[in-house]
Amino acid sequence: MSELHVLTTGEAARYCGVNFRTVIRWIERGQLKAYKLPGRGDHRICVEDFVGFLRDNSMPVPSELAAASRKVLLLAADPELTASGRQALQQVGCDVEVAGDSFVAGTLMTACKPTLMVIDANLTGVNGFQILDHLRSRSEYANVRVLVVGPAGERDPQRWLNAGADALVAHPGESSELAAKVRLLLEI
């Protein structure tokens, strides 16, 4: 399989079983994120955005596109969590990028466009709630799933879910529990 990064409106239409004009209407209404090519004005759709659109609208995700949407950003400084987390994510079939601080994480969010972000709530100098608030307040990150590796002795895990996390695992997370949550969130 060749690696897909962008789709034409015609390709997106074929995946959805609709006319390409319907895809253009979705783009014009702001339902589907796309960009225009200079000169011709043809639309191109990033695969990650298209997969997010399909999931948001409860449409099936073709297997060849689902594989392209397994980019994960792991925000953790703890070497043990970084190693075990990376291994668990790779075993599930994810393409993993690791950030040791929020600055690097911000850069990687833009560069690699992950489908899932795993945040270690025990990072020093970083407030996980501020990260969640930032992600949930920006439209370009609306489709990014967030899994929080909760702090040791977390008494109220619901507060992370209320803040915008999609799931929570205990810290230090069992790699099997982490893998199971990732499979669920990415629909693998």
Written description of the protein model:
The chain is an alpha/beta fold. It contains 9 helices and 8 strands. A 5-stranded parallel β-sheet has the order 5-4-6-7-8, with helices on both faces. A 3-stranded antiparallel β-sheet has the order 1-3-2. Helix 1 crosses helix 2 and helix 5 packs across helix 9. The radius of gyration is 17 Å and the shape is elongated.
Key features of this structure:
single chain, about 190 residues, alpha/beta, 5-stranded parallel sheet, 3-stranded antiparallel sheet, 9 helices, about 45% helix, elongated
Structure summary:
This protein has 188 residues and is α/β, with parallel strands linked by helices. 44% of the residues lie in helices and 17% in strands. The longest helix is centred in the middle third of the chain and has 13 residues, at 79-91.
Topology of this structure?
Blueprint: E1 6-8, H1 9-16, H2 20-28, E2 35-36, E3 43-46, H3 47-56, H4 63-66, E4 71-75, H5 79-91, E5 95-99, H6 102-112, E6 116-120, H7 128-137, E7 145-149, H8 158-162, E8 167-169, H9 175-186
Parallel strand pairs: 4-5, 4-6, 6-7, 7-8
Antiparallel strand pairs: 1-3, 2-3
Number of helices: 9
Strand order of the largest sheet: 5-4-6-7-8
- Uncertain regions: pLDDT < 50 for 5+ in a row? none
Largest beta-sheet characterization: 5 strands, parallel
| Helicity range | 40-55%
Structural class given helices, strands, pairing? alpha/beta
- Shape descriptor reads elongated
First and last CA, distance: 18 Å
Multimeric status of the protein: single chain
Q: Report the β-strand fraction as a percent range.
A: 15-25%
Give the SSE string. Answer: EHHEEHHEHEHEHEHEH
Spatial extent as radius of gyration: 17 Å
Average pLDDT rating: 83
Number of DSSP E strands:
8
